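Two records follow; treat each independently.
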Amino acid sequence: MSTPPHEKPTAGPAAGTAPRPARSGGRATLAFPASPPVRLDGDGRIDADLPCPRCGYLLRGRKPGTACPECGREIDVEAQADPLAAGPPAFRGAVLGGARRLSVGMALLPLGVYPGLAVATAGVWSLTTKPPGPPEPWLQRNGRLFARWFTALGLPAMVAAVAWSAWTLASRRGVGGSWTLQDTALCGTHALFFIGLMFAWRHLYDLAARADAPAAALSLRKLWRGYFRALVAVAAIGLAVNAADRLDLLFRIGPRWRGLVAPATALLLLALAVGLWAWTFARARAFRAALEAALAAPRTAGPRGLQPPRSAG
């Protein structure tokens, strides 16, 4: 049976040729590093299944600063400084419980949107527990707090906005400028929660890296980018709908056009929501599995990094 291409040992770049430099912009936007921090062994080699960002070659056993033997890209990684397995039991328990609640909440979402989001929000609250040790860097601390409070405050605000809209429709009080206020409240509260989730994925990226799960960390970075694209898409849909309303007011396009806008917009938003949910659910499960694997059996520090505790015999 042939070996997968990303696991084949290669001889590396040809002798006498310099390795190809990393592409420009190797550092991702919004403080995402090019690769998550990884555990190094006693010889300073990568001790985790870290794929190359360019070609997917597994870099386990390679030294940071050298070149990927498959594509020649520089291995630009940092050593993991504070693994989760070495943290105090209370912090490990909060993080692991949060990962489980996040996964369960995403699974419950099709049965009830807001009950599922409530369970997921409880998971984010536990996952954003203040880590022990020295003070956090400013960006890391504020990102964690934004994820914690934007979701915690955004969820009840969303429920209140939906309840207000439903009450207005039921009592037929939608007169004057109330529709504009309702649209603003609905969009604003949901955007607050949505942005809180984006900060949460950035924080979970760090947790996955500290749990020796670089693949899960990289998938969370992709999820963050997917949420950003979805946010742009929703804004574009909103602008298009408002532009259609304006054209109807100016040129009297007629009820046929207005009848097409509403269902088309609803279908686009539904497809976007279902796709984003499926993607989030899969990554939440992978994140939970990574944390359970890392924290199920506590490790002790040894001369070659973190190692499983030895039995008394």
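The next record belongs to a different protein.
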Amino acid sequence: MAFCCGFTKGYQKRSFRSSEKGCRNCPLRLECCGRTTKFKKIEVSIHKPLYDEMHEKLNRDKNYTRFLVKRRSSTVEPVLGTLINFLGMKRVNTRGMKNANKHVLMSALSYNLKKYLKFKGKKSNSNIQIMNLAKGMLRLFEYWFLRTSKASF
């Protein structure tokens, strides 16, 4: 198979493509290529060796795998679940990586602000002070956000 490196739309991958001549008389052609395609094309990430190394490591050491799954389920998954189910992050409704990063940043800010307000609410009895602090933080973020970005949501 011939190799060509593709750099399309920021995703770096390796493309392997067979020749039409090589596939023409192959007995497995129908299973491999199908009826209409005349060649086989396989695309893999440039980071495939790292993925393979991690899979080997996880298959080799079951205790390490259990540890990673337990740690992830207690740290990352609850945050993602909250963002998806309660903060409307089922999909990013913007175009481009820059705007998608802003969208995720705003979601993370709202998540952290909710946690902060919940934490401060337990310590302080004055909800007015907390709301003023939250408004100030949002104004500061809006100022920073408008200064650093020319594109809008």
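Discussion point: The beta strands are 2-8, 11-17, 41-45. How would you locate this feature using only the token line?
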